Amino acid sequence: MKDTTTGSCGDATAQPTAEERRAAVRERYSRAATTGDGCCAPACCGGENDASGGQPPAREVSLGVGYTPEDLEVVPEDANLGLGCGNPTRFATLREGDVVLDLGSGAGIDCFLAAQRVGPTGQVIGVDMTPEMVERARANARRGGYTNVEFRLGEIEALPVADESVDVIISNCVLNLSADKARVLREAHRVLRKGGRLIVSDLVSTLPVPAVLEGNLDAVAGCLPTQREAYLETFRSAGFTDVRIAEEHPYPADYLLSDAGVQAFLEAHPDEAAELTAFAGSIFGAHFEATKG
Ligand SMILES: C[S@@+](CC[C@H](N)C(=O)[O-])C[C@H]1O[C@@H](n2cnc3c(N)ncnc32)[C@H](O)[C@@H]1O
């Protein structure tokens, strides 16, 4: 297939394989974990030397997607890489003693927020497949003296978590990165107790992803959205009930359109501008809720 790893939004139209996707995602978030630069946006078509893909700083991104200044105050500083597209714990009614699982926990921001809500009798488990991310999250937990949080290295398509052992699952800007979202949601269903809840913040769009972005590994690793109805249906097919979007907010189109890689691409391919601009304007940050009945 064509080289889709060059960092530009080039003419890549071939679809990456699941393995190529996984490697690109791991590579991007390994870099984010070690350099502190992050990006979770379809804008991440930036050049190899532009790890941020032209994104604003982590704090600004996080405030923009729904965290409060207080949230950012109480978590370890290194836990926020600005990689989220929502604030799932804001929607999760967490109780003292709950067991919470975070799918794709990154540097741990949502795990640390959950840990404060479930208290010392509760437990928070973060799962992430990028070793450098897990190391960073564990270091944050040690520094912050968190005794009710643990981070496990693993893939969310095959969760290292026992059947029916979790009360609430949260996830922030991760499921779209998986090549097999249906399998991830079946796994989520397996590990939840009956009556358990799933709260997912992720990107949705009303328009289909342009082929030029779908074939670009940098864009794929930067969280391309899924069309809203298709995403909702994946929850239902995995057996979840009461599936709904609790809140939705427009995702800033500029995050995509001002990206240096996108700009360069559009200069070379002005005929693609209308489709990319319309697509960028159709992206929303959505908060999904679902229950295991
Ligand atoms: C966009 S970041 C979000 C991190 C975190 N949820 C946050 O909001 O800061 C995506 C994270 O998901 C992890 N990830 C992506 N695909 C995964 C998979 N299939 N299994 C496990 N972790 C995955 C990446 O390693 C990365 O740390």
Number of domains: 1
- Secondary-structure element pattern, one letter each: HHHHEHEHEEHEHHEHEHHHE
Strand percentage lies at 15-25%
Query: What is the CATH topology assignment?
Result: Rossmann fold
How many angstroms separate the termini? 43 Å
Mean pLDDT: 88
Rg calculated over all Cα atoms = 18 Å
Counting DSSP H or I runs of 4 or more residues, the number of helices is: 13
CATH H level, superfamily name: Vaccinia Virus protein VP39
Largest sheet: 8 strands, mixed
* CATH class category label: Alpha Beta
Helix content: 25-40%
Hetero groups in this structure are:
S-adenosylmethionine
Name the poorly predicted regions.
1-12, 43-53
Structural class: alpha/beta
Number of strands: 8
Q: What overall geometry do the principal axes of the alpha carbons give?
A: globular
